[in-house]
Amino acid sequence: MDFLPPPDLALPISYEARAQAVALYCDAIVRMHWGERLINKIFGRAMQSHAAGRIVVQHYRWKEEGAERPTLALLQRHASRGTRTLASFVAVLRLTGMVAAEADPGDRRVRYLVPQERLIAGLRAWIAHHLRCCEALGWLGAGHADRLMEDAAFFSAFVSRAGTILDQVALHRGRFGGWSWFDERDGGGRVAMLLLRDHFKANPVAGSPPAAFPLRARELAEGLGLSHSHVRGMLKEATEAGHLAHDAGRAQVRLTSRFLDEATSWLLHFLSWFADAAHAARRAG
Questions:
Q1: Residues near 249 by beta carbon (within 8 Å), at least 6 away in sequence
Q2: How far is CA 222 from CA 185, 229, 280, in A?
Q3: What digits encode the pLDDT tens for the residues 166-205?
């Protein structure tokens, strides 16, 4: 497959620019989740994060466009699998106060899912970080991330158009090799981001082969709220799958060129979809 961002954003990007953008992206995401055991438990899998995002997107689409309000049934229609898990996840969101349920006045059996400020504020900070990375890559002009944080109308316009990001994620599921391999595992996306962050810190300029860097599985597990055995098993399987070389005795790891290509390609695609949504939101305003 073609490991380049979509044609409209496929500007020449130097290794150094890619390294800086990916390291910036991964460092901030890891910081947002480091030590946050509850958040990591709730949003440990991509499906859960995307479902929460769909609730917020659909809520804002309802407010802006009169679209269908979010319900569990709507989320299950968008899900390709795991509908029972999805119902349990929504129950957890309600229990933790991230989502409230509002009965339809015409049919008490219908329960609308209403995102609460805790979920909205977390999503706003998360989106803003993605826009900062797009600015660093030159795909957005400076100020988009700040505007998203400060301008409620721009935030609403962006979120109303962010369903395209979730649609693209679903369309591209499983197509990015090593990144997809990690993302399908509990906490795997966070582990992959930490590996990428530390790789680019150790390899700020192009080199062959990539340099190894320190990795302490127990510290990583504790920081991300995962069991030590789960992280050790994931690293062992990732080594067997050819995504990395792990020297447990020296507590070092080296990412393979193939994994770096696949993971970087995924992140560039992902960020490009945020840039597209930001351009659409700006045009709407």
A1: none
A2: 17, 11, 40
A3: 889 888 888 888 999 998 888 888 899 999 999 988 887 7
